[in-house]
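This protein record is not my work; I was only asked to verify it. Take the sequence as given and treat only the C-alpha cells as open to question. I have pasted the whole thing underneath without changing anything:
***
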Amino acid sequence: MQYRKYTVFIAAFYCAALWLLPQAAAAPPALREFPAPEAHQGVAVDTAHVYAIDNQTIAKYDKFTGERVAIWKASDDTPMTHLNSGVVWEGKLYCAHSNYPGIPMTSSIEIWDTATLTHIATHSFGILYGSLTWMDRHDGFWWGCFAHYDKRGGYPDKDHSHTTVVKFDDDWRALEAWVLPKAMLAEAHPYSSSGGAWGPDGRLYCTGHDGPQLYVLALPKAGSTLELVEKISFPIDGQAIAFDRSGSNLLHGILRDEKKVIAAPLP
C-alpha cells in the first residue's frame, strides 16, 4: 500500500513538472519555393524579401508571394563579371564578386541599398587570396571564402585545396584565415565552396558547387583547418545560401537547373 502511494505521488509530481516546462516550439514551416530566372549563383534574404543573384543581375522578390518587385543589371558605369553570394546587413546588400574565370584572380565586395536596389559602394581586394565566392556577417566580423579551382579559372600551380576562409574586421583588414577540411574538398573537386553562411547555432554551413548537401563546419581548437562536424542532405543545387534571420531560421538556396528560389528548415 505504501509503495502504491509513493508511485502515485511520483506520477503526479512528474506530470506537474511537465506542465511547468516551456511548451515545445511549433513545427518548422513547410518547404517554400518560387520561380526566379536570376537564381543562378545564389540568394540573399531579409525580413520581407529574397534577392536572387546572377552573374550580372540581382532581382528582388517578395519572399512570401514570390512576386518580383525590383531588378538591377550591370552597366558600363557599374560593370560586373561574376557576382556570387550575398548577405543583407543593416539595410544594405553585400555581394561577393570576382573576375572568374579571369586570371589573375581579382575580387571585390559590391554593395546595394536594399530599399532602392541602387548600387552604392564597392571595396576591392585586388589580387589577394583567390576568387571571392561567398561572404557573411557573424559575431561582429565579416567572413569571406576565396576559392581556387583545378580547372577553368584556376592557377596552374594551385588547386582547390588553396581555398581560404578569411575573417575581416569592419575595415576589411584580414585578422585570421583557415583552409577547408580535406573530406569536403575531395567532394567539391574540381571546384570549391560556392556558398557559406553562419547558422543560428553558431556553426558554419557551406555548400559545394552543385551538390544537394551542406557541410557543417566549426572553427578548430588548434591549427588552420576548419573542422567538418557533419554533412547534411539539403534540397539545393549547391551555390550560395542565406539564413532567414527574421525569426523563422529558414535556410534559403536555389535550384539552379530549375531557376527556383527555395527555402526549407534545417533537418
